[in-house]
Design brief:
Keywords: Membrane, Transmembrane, Transmembrane helix
Protein name: Amine oxidase domain-containing protein
Largest sheet: 7 strands, mixed
CATH class of the largest domain: Alpha Beta
CATH topology of the largest domain: FAD/NAD(P)-binding domain
CATH architecture of the largest domain: 3-Layer(bba) Sandwich
Structural class: alpha+beta
Pfam families: NAD_binding_8
InterPro entries: FAD/NAD-bd_sf, Zeta_carotene_desat/Oxidored
Number of domains: 3
CATH superfamily of the largest domain: FAD/NAD(P)-binding domain
Shape: globular
GO molecular function, one term: oxidoreductase activity
Helix content: 25-40%
Strand content: 15-25%
Radius of gyration: 23 Å
Number of helices: 14
């Protein structure tokens, strides 16, 4: 009999289990073979015939912002710090600003929207998207494409899904740097998290899928029954919709889960035997598939993966678009053809000569074909109309079945991030276990700096006027 069974081995589940295991008997259930959720590292067979057997894969390029104060504090328990990451870019870097060129009217409209939402705190509705805003202002097709690329890079949806308020809040992190890890996260964080959980006697069940939840009982697909006093569900709404017994806690769970899930991100890894000179920020290139790419070989410590110098972690964000060379969509292709075209596109976009041999290539093992379309196992929640998907709190408390995750909305950051997962977990723990004290850090945003600057100027002006009489 457990005190708590926690479903989901992502950052939120790990954080919840670590806090509760100080006092309670805890079981943590993970559907795959490793911890980390969307931030996990998985290894796949190398599709290049050489001595390198396995390929590092991730759910797209991972970036971590300096404003993630709770995350930076959280990783200290794993003997990890910001020093284990490399400063990458800021939102005000030349690469970003040179991309974000708009017409004068568009630029002024975006500036006013930023002032209204972040400084004057006249918030935009959770039904008002970036696409709605562009339609209202009359953005050009070129500018629409730029914002669409930017939205897909920054969060999990295009301009039709991304709320204008959320987009403006991401822009508000401008003063903070963007960081990349110097090691794969399974060596930097998740392996240490696993060891710490084991040290605290948390029973971790890998490769275990939950089929049903009843009061005080969790049913696994393999027939195992786990008896527990309390249950905490830390997986996204799409995963909740596939577990019997959870729909009663939400209004329209299945409908909203699929409407508000991440757009398709088909992930792959491609590596070369030489360092690639050309570099770009990660915003999609010109190919219709809109590949988000990042050369992790620039950030990982030397010889992290022997024989691999440049290692591109890639997300194909528009697999439904037609590849002009083959006249097929990504969904029309089998894995071999799809992967081959990804390698060719990377060579074209980064000017990689044939002298640079491709030494690793693989699709993320979380990809599979369903109904003739590629789908990704890790499908997170993106805040889109009509807003956050909150459970019935009275029913949660009555049944002692609680939920945490980005979709709950208890985070300062309203875009999906590792910071949001940790803050939402902390909020739930403070609610159900008042004895657990967790500090909550709130970053100083650009809008606050601007407001303070305006107030200082105003005060100086008033002092000058008063002294002039």
């Amino acid at each position: 009999m457990y005190d708590y069974v926690i479903i989901g081995g992502g950052p939120g589940g790990i954080n919840t289990a670590l806090h509760l295991s100080n006092k309670y008997k805890v079981c943590l259930i993970e559907s795959l073979e490793s911890l980390g959720g969307c931030h996990r590292v998985r290894y796949a067979p190398n599709k290049v015939n050489n001595d390198i057997e396995e390929v590092h894969t991730e759910h797209g390029p991972r970036v971590y912002i300096g404003s993630y104060l709770n995350f930076w504090s959280w990783i200290k328990q794993f003997d990890t710090s910001k020093d284990d990451f490399i400063e990458y870019y800021s939102m005000f870097s030349y690469e970003v600003l040179s991309f974000m060129k708009f017409t004068p009217i568009e630029f002024l409209s975006l500036t006013w929207a930023f002032i209204r939402h972040n400084i004057l705190h006249i918030s935009y509705s959770d039904n008002y998207t970036v696409d709605d805003f562009m339609n209202h202002i009359g953005f050009t097709d070129e500018s629409r494409l730029k914002l669409d690329k930017l939205c897909r890079t920054l969060d999990g949806g295009d301009t039709h899904k991304t709320l204008l308020g959320v987009f403006l809040e991401i822009c508000d992190t401008g003063p903070y740097k963007i960081y990349e890890p110097t090691k794969p996260l399974n060596h930097l964080i998740w392996n240490k998290a696993h060891d710490l959980l084991v040290d605290r006697n948390v029973n971790i069940l890998f490769d275990s899928n939950v089929s049903k939840i009843d009061k005080n009982v969790v049913y696994l697909q393999n027939g195992t029954l786990l008896k527990t006093n309390k249950i905490i569900v830390t997986v996204p709404p799409v995963a909740c919709a596939n577990i019997e017994g959870l729909d009663k806690y939400f209004a329209n769970l299945e409908k909203r889960a699929y409407e508000q899930e991440y757009d398709s991100y088909l992930c792959a890894t491609v590596g070369f035997d030489k360092f690639v000179q050309k570099h770009k920020w990660g915003i999609p290139g010109e190919h219709p598939w809109q590949l988000i790419t990042m050369d992790m070989g620039r950030y990982f410590n030397k010889n992290t993966y022997p024989g691999v110098k440049s290692m591109f972690v890639i997300s194909v964000t528009y697999p439904e678009n037609v590849d002009p060379k083959l006249g097929m969509t990504a969904n029309d292709m089998n894995s071999s053809i799809f992967l081959h075209r990804i390698v060719e596109i990377i060579r074209e976009e980064y000017d990689i000569s044939i002298d640079n041999k491709c030494v690793i290539k693989s699709l993320n093992p979380s990809l599979s074909k369903k109904n003739k379309e590629w789908v990704e196992h890790d499908r997170a929640f993106v805040l889109s109309p009509p807003g956050f998907l909150k459970p019935n709190s009275e029913l949660e408390d009555k049944d002692q079945v609680w939920f945490t995750g980005h979709h709950i909305g208890n985070s300062f950051h309203r875009y999906n991030s590792i910071e949001s997962a940790i803050q939402n977990s902390n909020a739930l723990l403070s609610r159900i276990e008042p004895d657990i004290t967790i500090p909550n850090y709130k970053p100083l945003m650009m809008s606050s700096i601007i407001t303070m600057f305006i107030l200082i100027i105003l005060i100086i002006y008033l002092i000058f006027k008063i002294n002039s009489y």
